[in-house]
Amino acid sequence: MDSLDLQVLSQARDWFTQGHKVWLVTVIETWGSAPRPPGALLCLRDDGLVAGSVSGGCVEDDLIDRLRHGERVATPSLIAYGVTKEEAARFGLPCGGNLRLVQEPLQSVAWIDEVLARTERHELVARRLSLATGEVVVEAASRGDVFSFDGSRLTALFGPRWRLLIIGAGQLSRAVAQMALALDFEVICCDPREEYNLTWDIPGTTFSKAMPDDLVIELQLDPHSAVVAVTHDPKLDDLVLLEALKSPAFYIGALGSRNNTATRRERLALFDLSPAEIDRLHGPIGLDIGSKTPAEIAVSIVAEIVAVKNGVLLKQKKDGSSVPAIRPATSAS
Known about the structure:
Number of strands: 14
Distance between the termini: 7 Å
Strand order of the largest sheet: 3-2-1-5-4
């Protein structure tokens, strides 16, 4: 669940505490080219104001129109759009897309307070809604969990499902961290060098002065984890790679030219890494977009991470780059 949906929950809470009646609308299923994925949220106020979105706009207009004409559900209910080609065209669902929603009256903000507080602490939580009773329960979740709806119970995830470990606290790392935060990654920066770690001040990130290899072991990287090594110091970058390449992390990359990458691969081969593990290394790191400045290089790195996360073929790689095979995405984010 992305931060925009957390903003929707925050807005719903504010409206409710101000005395308004509020309804939450959640996308539960899509077909075709529906614009918003399952789990996307919208909140609707009793006077027609909305926050968030579930489509490109036309469905939102219809929900507002229903409300203003007195359709105010008292219990969670299902709504379907785009069942026919004509209706899909009417509601702006491209390519015959279809959309199913759950609309529910907000009865309490206690669970929203809990979700917001726990995600602020970088926890991943699941919100479970019973359609029969409207009861909401908030529980701890794991990164392997996904949004689900079985006809009677809706489970939506909130918090960082993806995690990025950055080795090095320089200017490039700062840009990478800020972009990753905008994409709802949990961001951890590691740099044991005092001249760098004293200046790290990116809000919303976690900083560690541990040795990189020790931190990788401590974090227990999983298939929802990515690692980028950008210190320009082989001693530190290689330390993290020796552990990360043996982990199930979905992305592992290191900064360096093609020549430096080739030399690094030779060094790694001297340790207890198999050829297949070394081949998982992305290097030179990032997509080939002609980047020169730290911000542009950060764009190329983060774009590559997102592409790998989404299981997209890496076409924008420099000739001679090491390009690990793309594995199917673990789950959509």
